[in-house]
C-alpha cells in the first residue's frame, strides 16, 4: 500500500511539457519508475504463483503496460495511473458503495443500450435534416474576410440574414466555407459527429447554442421540436433511469451489509453465552472435587458463582463491557481445557486464580456502575452500596480496618463533590440554561455575520472583544458540563464532542491571532468553525433531529463514496496529465485556458469541473484541438471526456442521491414510529410525550436524551457497542408500530374522510382497494349553516353540493382552466389594443364568469370560512378565490388605471395552478414540497455558514482594473492601448476602469447569493479562478496567487450541491411515495399483495390469430417464424448502417449507391407489409399498434421516393411532413409500450432498431436537392 501511495505521489509530481520536453525532475522520476515497476512486477508474479493467473489479470496488465513505457508509447504509459485503483482493495468501508455500483452494471447496461438507441435515432435524424447547414456564414463581399464572431446564416429570409451587417460600404454575403461552430466539432456532417453533438445536448451543456445555430441557418419554424424532444426524452427521462437503478442497488447492498453485521453480532453474542455457560459448568464441576469441611473455599466458590451471575446480568445491561467479557470468557474456555488435562491440585489453583480475576472484573464493573450511579437519584445510590459491601466481604478474609483520617476527609469531600456535581447537572439540564446557550449562539453568529467590506474601526474592535467574550463563555459551559457529567458521560454525547471541538478551535484561533503564527486564511476558517454551534438548536426539535440523525447515519456511506470519488479524480487527473499535459497552448498571443492538465493540482480542478458538468464540452473542444482538431484522428480524444463524464457525473454523483433517498426513507420511518409511540402513550395514559419544539428537560436525571441518541448513532458504527440498547429500542419501536396500526391510523385522516373513520368490526369483510381509492371522492356536506342563511338540509344548498361533486362539472371546469391558460399565452404583449387581444379579452370575460359561478356554488355548498370544512379552510380553494378575484378587479378598472390593471393581470398567471386541486398527482407533489422545510432550514444554515467564511476570505478582494498592468485603484486612471485578438496591427484605445466582479463576498447577503449561483453549477469555474487570483483588499488580482482557496469551493459543492440539493430531490421522492400510499393505509394488504392483485385484474389473455385457409396459413407460418424475424432484423441493421453512412461532401456515385440501397430496403419492407397483410388480413393486422407504425413508415418511404424528383418547392413542405411522421412515430412508440412489454426479445430488438431505420428514410434525397440549389444560388450572388 505504501508503494502504491508513493507511486501516486511520483506520478503527481511529474510535470508535462509541450512537445514532449522534459527536465531533470522528470528524468529522475523516470528512473524511480523503474524501481516501482520492479516491485510491482515481483508482487504480480508472486500473486500469480499463489492465486493463479486469473486472479492477477489486472496486476499483470498494468505491469505489462508499465514495462512498455520504456518504448515511449504514450497511450500505454497512461495505464500506469490505474495503480491507485489497487488502494480500493485495502479499504473495507468501500464495500457497500462498490458492490452497489458493480451490481448495478447489468441494469445499467440495459439503460446504456436505451441511451445509445436514443442517440442513434436523433443522430440519424439530425444527419438527414441538418447535414452541412452549419458551414454557411457571412463573408465580406470585397475583402473575402469572415465576420468577427462567425455564426451560421441563411441565404433566404428564414434564418440570419447577412444584410444586417452591412454598414459604411461593407457588404456581407452568406456562403459556404466556414469550419462551423466550436471549431467544427459540433455539427451533423457525419454520423460520428452527429452522435457526439447529440450526446452533448443530452448532457444539457451547449444545447441551446446548437438550437440557435440551427435557427440561424434554417429558420425557427419547427427545428426547436428536434432539440426540445431530445432534452425531454434523453435528459429528463432516459438519463434519470440511472438514478433509479443505482438507488435500488444501493438500498439492497446496504440491507445486505446491515443484515450481515446483525448476523455477526448475533453470532458473537451466542459465542459469548456459550463460553459463559461452559465456564459455569466448569465451576460446578470444580465444586464437586473440593475437600469436605473446607468452609472457606466453599463459600468462595459460591460467592464466585454469584458474582459471575451478576457479571452476566451486568453484561446484558452494559455494552462496553461485552468486548472485555468476550475476551475473558475465551480465556476461561482455554483454562477449562488446561484444567481437564492436569491434576485436581492444579485445577484448584487455577480456579482460585480465576476467582480472583473475576472478583477484580466485578470490582471494575461496580466502579463503572458507580460512575453511572452518580447520575442517578439518591435512592438508586443507596441500592448500589450493599453490592459493594458484598463484594468486599469475599476478599480472602482480610481483617476489617478502621477508616483513617485521610479516608474520612476524602469521603466527606466526595460527598460534597457529588452533591455539587448533581446541582451543576441539574443546572446544565435546565430549560433556562439551554435557552441561554441558544441565545449566546445566535448572538455570536450575528456578530460574525456583521463583518463586511469597509466596516468602521469601532465595529472591528467590538467584534474582537465580543468574540473573546463568547469564547470565554462557551469554554466555561464546556468545563461546567465536564465537571457535572464527568469525562466519560460528557464525551458519550455527539453534540458534546462537537462542542468540545468548536471550543478548542476557538481557543486555538484566539492564541494564533494574538501571536500571529498562522496566516489569516487559517485563522478565518478556525473562527468560522464556531458557526457550527447553530446546529445545537436541532437537538430538541424532533423532526429536524430525525433528519440530522439520518444525515449522520449516512456519514459512513458518504465518506466511502467521497474516498472513491477522490480516487476517481486522482486517476483521471493523472491520465489527463499523461495525455493532455502541456498541449493546451494554442495561441501564443492569448492566455492559456485555465482548465488544463499542466500540473497535478490544475488537472484535479479540471476533472472536478467536468464532474460537475459545467462547461465540460468546452474542455473537450480544447482536448480535441490539442491533437489537431476534428479533421484529424485527434477526435478520438473525446473518448476520455465522455468516459469521465459518464462514470463521474451519471454514476458516482447519482450515488449521492441514492444514499440520500435511502437514509431519508429511514428518517421518515423513524419519525412515523415515534409518532405512533406518542399516540400509544397518549391513548394508554403513559407519561408525557415531548412534542415538536418543546424542550422536555424536566425530570431527566439520568443520562440526557442527547446521549441516548448519540449512543444509538454510535451503535450503527461501532459494531457491538450499544447493540443491546439498540435492539431493545428497536423492539419497543416495533411494538409501537404494531399498536399504532390498529389504534392510531385514523388520527391523521383528512376531514373529507371523517365519515369513514369508524373502526371496522372484526367480522367485517376487508374492503377492496378499488373501494379504498374511491372512498374519498365525494366531500360530504358540512353540518353547519352557510352564510347563516342556508341550513344543512336546504334544497338549494344540496343542489349546489350535487353540482360541485358531479364529475361532468369538474371536467368542464378543468377544460376551462386549460383553455384560459392557453389563451393567456396567446396574448400579444407588444400591442395591447390589437384585434387578437380584443377577442382574447372577451373569452377571458367568459371564463372568468364561469369561474365566478364555480366559486359561488362551492361557497354556498360548503360555507365560506367560519366552520370546519368551509371553502377557505383549504389552501387550494384560497388560490382559486385569489385568481378569480384578481380577474374581476382588473375588469373594473378603466384605461386611466392601466398600471394597476397590468399589476393585477400579472397575477392571472396563477390560473394554471388551479389545475393542481383537480389533479391527484400534482397535489402529491405540492404536499411533498410543503414538507421540505426542515431540509431548507439545514441547507440555509450551511449556506449561511459558508457565506460568513466567504466574507472572511474574500471581502474586498474581487476588484480589478481592465488594464492588467495596474493593480491599485489609484493607478487605474486614464487610457491605455490594447490590441484586438493580439494583433499589433489593430491597436485600440480603451479607458481604464476599476471594476468589481458581478458576484462577490463583500457582505453576507451578497455572499449567499454568490454561493447559490455556485450550487447551480452555472459559471462557478470562472468565480473559482477569480477567487484563486484574488490578492488582498483593494489590490488587483495576481495569477494563481492563492490556489488553496479552491478547497473552499470543492467542500461547498460536495456538501451543498452534491448532497444537500440531492436531499431536496430525495425528500420529494420519499414524500411523494408516502402520499401515494395514504389512500391504502386502512387496507389490510401490503404493497406487494396489492401489486399482485392489480396485475391479476389487468391481465388479459394473449390472442393469437391463426388463419384457416391453407395458403394463408403457410404465409402466416412464414412471417411468424423465427428465421423471418432474424432476416428482417438483419435487413433493418443494414438499413440503419446505410443511413449512418451518409456524410457531407460525399461523391455523387456514393449518393447514387445509397439511393439504390434505399430503394431496395423500401421494396423489401413493402414486401414484408404485403406478406403480413396476406397472412393477418386488414382487420387483425391493424389491431397491433406496431403494425400501424410499420405501415405509416413504409407508406412515407414510398411517397418520399415518388416525390423525390419533383420541383424544389415541394422540398420544404415535404421536410415538414417528414418531421410530422417522426413525431407521430414517437407517439406511437409510447402508445404501444404496453404491448412492447409482452413481446419476445427478438421482436423488442427488431422494433427498437426499426424505429431508428424508418424514421429517416424519407429525407435521403430532398435535402440534397435543397443544398445543391442553395449552393448554386450563393454562387450566383
From TrEMBL:
It is found in: Membrane. Its main location: membrane. Residues 375-394, 686-697, 715-741 have a biased composition (Basic and acidic residues). Residues 1-257, 431-667, 806-1079, 1122-1202 form the Ion transport domain. Residues 375-410, 672-778 are annotated as: Disordered. GO terms for cellular component: basolateral plasma membrane; voltage-gated calcium channel complex. Keywords: Calcium, Calcium channel, Calcium transport, Ion channel, Ion transport, Membrane, Metal-binding, Repeat, Transmembrane, Transmembrane helix, Transport, Voltage-gated channel. It is a multi-pass membrane protein. It holds the Pfam family Ion_trans. Ca(2+) binds at residues 205, 614, 1018. InterPro entries: Ion_trans_dom (IPR005821), VDCC_alpha-1_subunit (IPR050599), VDCC_L_a1su (IPR005446), VDCCAlpha1 (IPR002077), Volt_channel_dom_sf (IPR027359). The chain crosses the membrane at residues 34-54, 108-127, 224-246, 432-450, 462-480, 561-580, 630-653, 808-826, 838-861, 881-904, 925-949, 1046-1072, 1115-1136, 1156-1174. One of its GO terms (biological process) is detection of external stimulus. Belongs to the calcium channel alpha-1 subunit (TC 1.A.1.11) family. Voltage-sensitive calcium channels (VSCC) mediate the entry of calcium ions into excitable cells and are also involved in a variety of calcium-dependent processes, including muscle contraction, hormone or neurotransmitter release, gene expression, cell motility, cell division and cell death. This is Voltage-dependent L-type calcium channel subunit alpha. The lineage of its organism: Eukaryota, Metazoa, Ecdysozoa, Arthropoda, Crustacea.
Amino acid at each position: 500500500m505504501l508503494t502504491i501511495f508513493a507511486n501516486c505521489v511520483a506520478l503527481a509530481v511529474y510535470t508535462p511539457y509541450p512537445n514532449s520536453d522534459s527536465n531533470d525532475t522528470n528524468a529522475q522520476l523516470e528512473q524511480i519508475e523503474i524501481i516501482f515497476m520492479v516491485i510491482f512486477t515481483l508482487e504480480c508474479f508472486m500473486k500469480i504463483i499463489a492465486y493463479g493467473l486469473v486472479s492477477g489479470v489486472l496486476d499483470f496488465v498494468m505491469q505489462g503496460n508499465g514495462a512498455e513505457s520504456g518504448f515511449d508509447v504514450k497511450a500505454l504509459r497512461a495505464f500506469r495511473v490505474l495503480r491507485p485503483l489497487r488502494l480500493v482493495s485495502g479499504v473495507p468501508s468501500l464495500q457497500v458503495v462498490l458492490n452497489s455500483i458493480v451490481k448495478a452494471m447489468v441494469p445499467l447496461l440495459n439503460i446504456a443500450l436505451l441511451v445509445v438507441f436514443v442517440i442513434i435515432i436523433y443522430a440519424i435524424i439530425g444527419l438527414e435534416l441538418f447535414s452541412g447547414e452549419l458551414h454557411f456564414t457571412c463573408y465580406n463581399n470585397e475583402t473575402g474576410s469572415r465576420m468577427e464572431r462567425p455564426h451560421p446564416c441563411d441565404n433566404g429570409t428564414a434564418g440570419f440574414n447577412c444584410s444586417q451587417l452591412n454598414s459604411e460600404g461593407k457588404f456581407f454575403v452568406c456562403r459556404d466555407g466556414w469550419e462551423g461552430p466550436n471549431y467544427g466539432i459540433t455539427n451533423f456532417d457525419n454520423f460520428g459527429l452527429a452522435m457526439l453533438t447529440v450526446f452533448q445536448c443530452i448532457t444539457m451543456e451547449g444545447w441551446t447554442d446548437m438550437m440557435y445555430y440551427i435557427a440561424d441557418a434554417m429558420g425557427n419554424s419547427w427545428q426547436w421540436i428536434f432539440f426540445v424532444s431530445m432534452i425531454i426524452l434523453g435528459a429528463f427521462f432516459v438519463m434519470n433511469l440511472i438514478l433509479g437503478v443505482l438507488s435500488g442497488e444501493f438500498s439492497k447492498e446496504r440491507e445486505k451489509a446491515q443484515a450481515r453485521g446483525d448476523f455477526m453480532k448475533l453470532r458473537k453474542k451466542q459465542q459469548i453465552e456459550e463460553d459463559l455457560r461452559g465456564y459455569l459448568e466448569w465451576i460446578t464441576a470444580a465444586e464437586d472435587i473440593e475437600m469436605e469441611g473446607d468452609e472457606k473455599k466453599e463459600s468462595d466458590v459460591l460467592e464466585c458463582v454469584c458474582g459471575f451471575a451478576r457479571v452476566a446480568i451486568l453484561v446484558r445491561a452494559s455494552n462496553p463491557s461485552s468486548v472485555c467479557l468476550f475476551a475473558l470468557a475465551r480465556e476461561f474456555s482455554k483454562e477449562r481445557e488446561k484444567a481437564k488435562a492436569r491434576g485436581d491440585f492444579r485445577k484448584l489453583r487455577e480456579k482460585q486464580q480465576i476467582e480472583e480475576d473475576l472478583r477484580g472484573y466485578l470490582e471494575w464493573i461496580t466502579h463503572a456502575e458507580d460512575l453511572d450511579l452518580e447520575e442517578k437519584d439518591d435512592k438508586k445510590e443507596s441500592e448500589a452500596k450493599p453490592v459493594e459491601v458484598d463484594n468486599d466481604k469475599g476478599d480472602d478474609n482480610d481483617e476489617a480496618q478502621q477508616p483513617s483520617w485521610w479516608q474520612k476527609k476524602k469521603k466527606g469531600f466526595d460527598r460534597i463533590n457529588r452533591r455539587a456535581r448533581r446541582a451543576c447537572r441539574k443546572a446544565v439540564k435546565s430549560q433556562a440554561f439551554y435557552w441561554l446557550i441558544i441565545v449566546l449562539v445566535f448572538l455570536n453568529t450575528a456578530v460574525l455575520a456583521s463583518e463586511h467590506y469597509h466596516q468602521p474601526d469601532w465595529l472591528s474592535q467590538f467584534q474582537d472583544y465580543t468574540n473573546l467574550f463568547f469564547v470565554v463563555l462557551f469554554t466555561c459551559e464546556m468545563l461546567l458540563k465536564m465537571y457535572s457529567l464527568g469525562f466519560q458521560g460528557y464525551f458519550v454525547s455527539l453534540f458534546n464532542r462537537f462542542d468540545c471541538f468548536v471550543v478548542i478551535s476557538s481557543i486555538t484561533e484566539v492564541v494564533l491571532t494574538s501571536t500571529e503564527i498562522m496566516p489569516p486564511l487559517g485563522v478565518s476558517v478556525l473562527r468560522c468553525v464556531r458557526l457550527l454551534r447553530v446546529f445545537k438548536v436541532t437537538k430538541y426539535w424532533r423532526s429536524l433531529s430525525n433528519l440530522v440523525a439520518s444525515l449522520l447515519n449516512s456519514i459512513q456511506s458518504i465518506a466511502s463514496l467521497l474516498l472513491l470519488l477522490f480516487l476517481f479524480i486522482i486517476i483521471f487527473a493523472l491520465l489527463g496529465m499523461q495525455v493532455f499535459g502541456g498541449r493546451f497552448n494554442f495561441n501564443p498571443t492569448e492566455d492559456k485556458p485555465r482548465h488544463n492538465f499542466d500540473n497535478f493540482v490544475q488537472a484535479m480542478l479540471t476533472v472536478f469541473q467536468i464532474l460537475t458538468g459545467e462547461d465540460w464540452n468546452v474542455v473537450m473542444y480544447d482536448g480535441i484541438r490539442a491533437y489537431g482538431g476534428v479533421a484529424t484522428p485527434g477526435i478520438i480524444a473525446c473518448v476520455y471526456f465522455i468516459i469521465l463524464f459518464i462514470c463521474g457525473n451519471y454514476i458516482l454523483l447519482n450515488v449521492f442521491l441514492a444514499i440520500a433517498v435511502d437514509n431519508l426513507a429511514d428518517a421518515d420511518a423513524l419519525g412515523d414510529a415515534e409518532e405512533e409511540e406518542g399516540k400509544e402513550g397518549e391513548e394508554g395514559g403513559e407519561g408525557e410525550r415531548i412534542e415538536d419544539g418543546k424542550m422536555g428537560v424536566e425530570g431527566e436525571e439520568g443520562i440526557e436524551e442527547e446521549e441516548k441518541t448519540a449512543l444509538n448513532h454510535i451503535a450503527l458504527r461501532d459494531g457491538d457497542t450499544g447493540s443491546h440498547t439498540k435492539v431493545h429500542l428497536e423492539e419497543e419501536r416495533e411494538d409501537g408500530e404494531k399498536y399504532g396500526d390498529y389504534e392510531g391510523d385514523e388520527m391523521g385522516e383528512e376531514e373529507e374522510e371523517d365519515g369513514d373513520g369508524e373502526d371496522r368490526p372484526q367480522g367485517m369483510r376487508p374492503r377492496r382497494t378499488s373501494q379504498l381509492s374511491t372512498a374519498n371522492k365525494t366531500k360530504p356536506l358540512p353540518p353547519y349553516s352557510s352564510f347563516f342563511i342556508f341550513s344543512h338540509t336546504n334544497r338549494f344548498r344540496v343542489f349546489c353540493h350535487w353540482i360541485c361533486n358531479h364529475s361532468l362539472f369538474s371536467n368542464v371546469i378543468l377544460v376551462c382552466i386549460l383553455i384560459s391558460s392557453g389563451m393567456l399565452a396567446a396574448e400579444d404583449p407588444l400591442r395591447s389594443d390589437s384585434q387578437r387581444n380584443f377577442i382574447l379579452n372577451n373569452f377571458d370575460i367568459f371564463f372568468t364568469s364561469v369561474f365566478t359561478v364555480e366559486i359561488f356554488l362551492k361557497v354556498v355548498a360548503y360555507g365560506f370560512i367560519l366552520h370546519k370544512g368551509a371553502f377557505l379552510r383549504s389552501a387550494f380553494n384560497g388560490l382559486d378565490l385569489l385568481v378569480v378575484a384578481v380577474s374581476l378587479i382588473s375588469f373594473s378598472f378603466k384605461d386611466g388605471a392601466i398600471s394597476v390593471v397590468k399589476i393585477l393581470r400579472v397575477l392571472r398567471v396563477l390560473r394554471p395552478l388551479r389545475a393542481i386541486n383537480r389533479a391527484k398527482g400534482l397535489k402529491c407533489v405540492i404536499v411533498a414540497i410543503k414538507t421540505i422545510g426542515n431540509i431548507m432550514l439545514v441547507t440555509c444554515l450551511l449556506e449561511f455558514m459558508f457565506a460568513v467564511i466567504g466574507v472572511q476570505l474574500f471581502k474586498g478582494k474581487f476588484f480589478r482594473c481592465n488594464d492588467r498592468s495596474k493593480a491599485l485603484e489609484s493607478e487605474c486612471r486614464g487610457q491605455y492601448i490594447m490590441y484586438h485578438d493580439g494583433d499589433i496591427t489593430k491597436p485600440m484605445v480603451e479607458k481604464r476602469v476599476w471594476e468589481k466582479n458581478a458576484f462577490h463576498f463583500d457582505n453576507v447577503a451578497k455572499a449567499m447569493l454568490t454561493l447559490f449561483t455556485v450550487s447551480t453549477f452555472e459559471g462557478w469555474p470562472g468565480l473559482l479562478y477569480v477567487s484563486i487570483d484574488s490578492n488582498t483588499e483593494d489590490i488587483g488580482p495576481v495569477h494563481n496567487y492563492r490556489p488553496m482557496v479552491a478547497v473552499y469551493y470543492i467542500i461547498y459543492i460536495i456538501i451543498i450541491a452534491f448532497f444537500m440539493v440531492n436531499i431536496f430531490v430525495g425528500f420529494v421522492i420519499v414524500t411523494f411515495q408516502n402520499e401515494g400510499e395514504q389512500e391504502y393505509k386502512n387496507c389490510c394488504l401490503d404493497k406487494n399483495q396489492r401489486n399482485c392483485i392489480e396485475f391479476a385484474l389487468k391481465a388479459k389473455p394473449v390472442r393469437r390469430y391463426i388463419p384457416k385457409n391453407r395458403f394463408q396459413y403457410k404465409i402466416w407460418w412464414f412471417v411468424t417464424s423465427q428465421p423471418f424475424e432474424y432476416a428482417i432484423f438483419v435487413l433493418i441493421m443494414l438499413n440503419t448502417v446505410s443511413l449512418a453512412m451518409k456524410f457531407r461532401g460525399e461523391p455523387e456515385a456514393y449518393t447514387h449507391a445509397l439511393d439504390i440501397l434505399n430503394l431496395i430496403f423500401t421494396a423489401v419492407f413493402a414486401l414484408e407489409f404485403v406478406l403480413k397483410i396476406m397472412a393477418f388480413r386488414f382487420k387483425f393486422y391493424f389491431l397491433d399498434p406496431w403494425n400501424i407504425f410499420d405501415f405509416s413508415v413504409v407508406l412515407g418511404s414510398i411517397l418520399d421516393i415518388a416525390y423525390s424528383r419533383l420541383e424544389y418547392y415541394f422540398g420544404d413542405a415535404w421536410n415538414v411532413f417528414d418531421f410530422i411522421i417522426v413525431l407521430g412515430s414517437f407517439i406511437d412508440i409510447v402508445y404501444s409500450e404496453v404491448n412492447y412489454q409482452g413481446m419476445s426479445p427478438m421482436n423488442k430488438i427488431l422494433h427498437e432498431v426499426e424505429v431508428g431505420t424508418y424514421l429517416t428514410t424519407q429525407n435521403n434525397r430532398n435535402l440534397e436537392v435543397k443544398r445543391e440549389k442553395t449552393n448554386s444560388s450563393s454562387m450566383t450572388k
